[in-house]
Amino acid sequence: MTKMNRRTKIKIIYTGIVGLLLIPYLTAQPAETTTIIIQLDTTGSALWIVESRLVLATEEDEKFFEEFQKDETLKHDKLSEFKEKMNLLLEQIKYSRQRSMAMTDFDIYLGKEITVTKTYGVIKLQFVWEGFALLEEDTLSMGDVFEGGYYLSRNELLMVELPEGYQLVQVNPPPDQQKQTTLIWEGPMDFASGEPAVTIEKEVIQQLEKEWSILFLGLVLISVLIIIIKLQKMKIQKEKPKKQYVDLTGFSKAKVSILLNEMKEEGIIRKMFRGRENLITLGEKS
Questions:
Q1: What single DSSP character describes residue 151?
Q2: Which of 69, 119, 245, 273 could bond to 56 as cystine, CB 3.0-4.6 Å?
Q3: Residue 187, exposed/middle/buried by CB under 10 A (0-12, 13-18, 19+)?
Q4: Is the pLDDT of residue 275 over 70?
């Protein structure tokens, strides 16, 4: 298969994502809106949510949709069909991108939405794409998996939601709308190969907080180390035996005691008891 054919095949599979959600009975009546949401994660993974809203114009439409909601076998088959096609897409991309990827947590949801004027059948399908974006230190880049580009039909929206704490660095092509951390493209739109491309990085404040946290931790460790060293020195000094007068003079303990008593009587020194020891200070006649 040539490179161009492979790109074309990948693009067809991407386009088929929306078609897989529609119930055969309702495919003749296009979805009023289809929204593809890509919620980027800080790890490089992304939660994909594809949601279609179909107008239930008649009671027959509503009845059929309710039966479809209750039919677990039909929902399982629909989910399996979608999963099989997405795995085919994944194998094509893994081959060309040469990096680890996986698709997990496939799920399908059906519900009804009633407004003042219309009743809608809501079909939502979602999965987690691990390794969807490239992660390099504090930067995330998505878009390289769209090797064959991406096509949005009329009444389709593509929304890319950025993770909290990240700021937009570059986006191509520019979105039709940007609401805080959500980029929105409106169909019909034919994206070029490698698009939509979005590059984001951690906000400067978060980077500074990270650096300050490391510095603060370092200061705390240094402070703890200083305290430990001081405590060890105090312990050594406390455990070091004090020199007694017996050691200093070389006299016997009894002779030292007699001399001290005589010096006390003559007023040369004063003796005070402090615990188990005598505190010797100079007297008035010294």
A1: E
A2: 119
A3: middle
A4: no
